From TrEMBL:
Keywords: Membrane, Transmembrane, Transmembrane helix. This is DUF4337 domain-containing protein. It comes from the Bacteria. The chain crosses the membrane at residues 25-44, 172-195, 236-254, 387-407, 416-434.
Length: 435
């Protein structure tokens, strides 16, 4: 055991020194600011992860939409239309095949084409069974697309919009944390400049008292307690400290806004690309099918014209009957083309993403591009705002160093330098937030 010290002959421990209430409040406010800033940083990081996940999901979803649209409308649908057209032609000429060689020959060719193509098709393809066949309208291509999507259910269960909304919720909580930090900064500013309650001016303890307070330890400049000749300089110092607390919060908000706008612009670009490709596949198939019906109608009209001036005979009457049957078949082909190439709907079992892509029209693309560009402009503006705020922060650091140095050395006449840097910092901050 250590014996009593000369300063403490009775061996009693010296009383523990405590910060005064004012200093404790300052440290408490700083702790709140630091904790809220760190929490906001983590929340905005979670929001950024959500935005990036939404872009990744959008990429995977739109890639699936494009691939399935290509497979169904470029690979399967043209062959299905050809089979349906051949079967319809055989059905139209069937009643005439015993009346003459022309109908019999054309019927045999059409029937053989339809049967051979179906026999060679894979059982799981659109023409491999009668599952998608409507005798009058051809094959149900949208329902085939819906079944094709069911082979990759994970891709179409992706919900980039929901993931984006989850990121927005994290960003909202981040803004709440920033608001808490901002409120603490304002409280710090008010406490240092305005509030001077009696409890902050506790008189020294009486002789022999056990309570000893540490005074003069102020992590935040205190204009309210500064001497009159130093009050203006201390006010400037406090303003610079507030800037150093506030500017990182604004940078966090700007970075989060930039991330979101970039993610939304990327999603719009992916949706636009998928819409152009997928709707282009469907439009190309529909155009080819409608053209085929027009060609069939032209052939029927040409056959009718070829015998219009011929003398009446059984062969001529037979050829006219064939022309009439082909004309009816051409009208039916047009119905088939429109049915098979129609834009799918959610009621067909097709996913919302595929419906949106396949129903898009060229006149919709400028609006989609404009929306993408608007998000890109928002991202650019947020990025520029972040750069300006970083420059303002650097100038505030210079102002803080100069203000602290001149106050410490008592050279108050030199406070114009930190004042200038602080003014430029405030000006840049205002420009960044308002421009």
């Amino acid at each position: 055991m250590t014996g009593p010290t000369p300063a403490d002959p009775a061996g009693t421990a010296p009383p523990r020194r405590r910060f005064c209430l004012r200093t404790r409040v300052q440290f408490g406010l700083i702790a709140v600011i630091v904790a809220a800033t760190l929490l906001a940083t983590w929340q905005f990081k979670q929001a950024g992860d959500g935005y990036q996940d939404a872009v990744a999901e959008e990429l995977k979803l739109q890639a699936a939409v494009q691939e399935e649209a290509r497979y169904v409308y470029a690979d399967e649908a043209p062959l299905a239309f050809r089979v349906a057209a051949a079967a319809g032609r055989a059905e139209a000429l069937g009643p005439l095949r015993d009346d003459g060689r022309l109908a019999a020959s054309e019927f045999a060719l059409a029937e053989q084409e339809a049967v051979s193509l179906r026999d060679r098709a894979r059982p799981e393809s659109i023409i491999g069974s009668d599952r998608y066949l409507d005798a009058q309208k051809g094959y149900d291509v949208p329902r085939r697309l819906a079944d094709q999507e069911k082979q990759h259910p994970a891709d179409h269960r992706l919900a980039p919009g929901r993931t984006m909304a989850e990121g927005d919720r994290w960003a909202l909580w981040g803004r709440v944390s920033l608001a808490v930090a901002g409120a603490a900064i304002l409280a710090m500013l008010a406490a240092a400049s305005v509030l001077r309650p009696e409890a902050w001016r506790i008189p020294p303890p009486s002789a022999g008292g056990s309570r000893r307070l540490l005074r003069g330890v102020d992590p935040i400049p205190q204009p309210a307690t500064a001497s009159p000749d130093r009050r203006r300089g201390t006010q400037l110092h406090l303003l610079v400290v507030v800037l150093l607390f506030l500017l990182p919060l604004l940078q966090l908000a700007a970075a989060s806004g930039e991330q979101r706008a970039q993610a939304e612009a990327s999603r719009q670009a992916l949706r636009l690309g998928a819409a152009i490709v997928a709707s282009g596949q469907r439009s190309a198939f529909l155009t080819q099918a409608v053209t085929a019906s027009h060609v069939a109608d032209i052939h029927a009209a040409a056959r009718e014209i070829a015998v219009v001036y011929e003398k009446d005979s059984p062969a001529v009457r037979h050829e006219r009957a064939v022309a009439a049957a082909e004309t009816r078949h051409a009208s039916r082909l047009r119905v088939m083309a429109e049915h098979m190439g129609r834009a799918p709907a959610v009621t067909d079992g097709v996913s919302v993403a595929s419906v949106a892509a396949l129903r898009a029209r060229p006149e919709d693309w400028p609006d989609m591009r404009a929306e993408q560009n608007s998000h890109k402009d928002l991202a650019d503006a947020a990025g520029v705002r972040g750069l300006y705020l970083a420059a303002a922060t650097a100038l505030a650091v210079v102002a803080e160093v100069l203000a602290a140095a001149f106050l410490e050395s008592g050279r108050l006449s030199r406070m114009g330098w930190p004042t200038g840097f602080a003014a430029v910092s405030i000006g840049i901050t205002a420009w960044a937030m308002l421009a």
